[in-house]
Design goal:
The protein is mainly alpha-helical. It has one domain (2-140): Orthogonal Bundle (Arc Repressor Mutant, subunit A). The protein is built from 6 helices and 2 strands; from the N terminus they run ααααββαα. The chain has helices spanning 2-27, 33-44, 50-57, 61-73, 95-115, 121-140; strands at 77-81, 89-93. The chain has a two-stranded antiparallel ribbon. A hairpin with a 7-residue loop joins β1 (77-81) and β2 (89-93).
Length: 145
């Protein structure tokens, strides 16, 4: 049953992400799925450094730098010097970026509502508790060398 459980979790996650990726194309804002993910991450972590965003996304610095450059050219993201580290930049959404982010968040909420339409409040609470325990288990797991 463990394999099947992990498979269904993966399937739900993949379907959810596919719905969101489809919406990015529907918005016709000219961003790749990765650029959209970077924009959403910056929206969720305002003021984060490029290093923090790269760590959160699990991507390399060069890939992230290219995406941030594109988002900057499109006036969606602004970089400001960090007050704590002269080598680092803090990332913030511009007003235009915040509008795109709000659109993404609204669509994410709609997809989430469809995903959970057949799940009762009690089941949602139980699922939240179980998934939190699963996430904690992965956080406490030592890294593989």
């Amino acid at each position: 049953m463990t394999g099947e459980l992990i498979d269904i979790l993966s399937d739900v996650s993949n379907r959810f992400q596919q719905q969101l990726r489809g919406d990015v194309q529907t918005f016709d804002i000219g961003l790749t799925p990765f650029e959209s993910k970077v924009l959403v991450t910056i929206g969720n972590l305002p003021g984060a450094t490029q290093r923090e965003v790269a760590a959160w996304l699990g991507c390399d610095k060069a890939q992230l730098a290219r995406a941030i450059k594109t988002l900057g050219v499109r006036s969606l993201v602004a970089r400001t010097p960090s007050v704590y580290d002269w080598r680092a930049w803090n990332l913030m959404l511009t007003p235009k970026g915040r509008a795109v982010f709000a659109n993404f968040q609204a669509r994410r909420a709609a997809v989430a509502q469809a995903c959970l339409a057949n799940v009762t409040t009690e089941e949602r609470e139980m699922l939240f508790s179980i998934l939190t325990k699963m996430a904690d288990g992965l956080l406490s797991r030592p890294e593989q060398q």
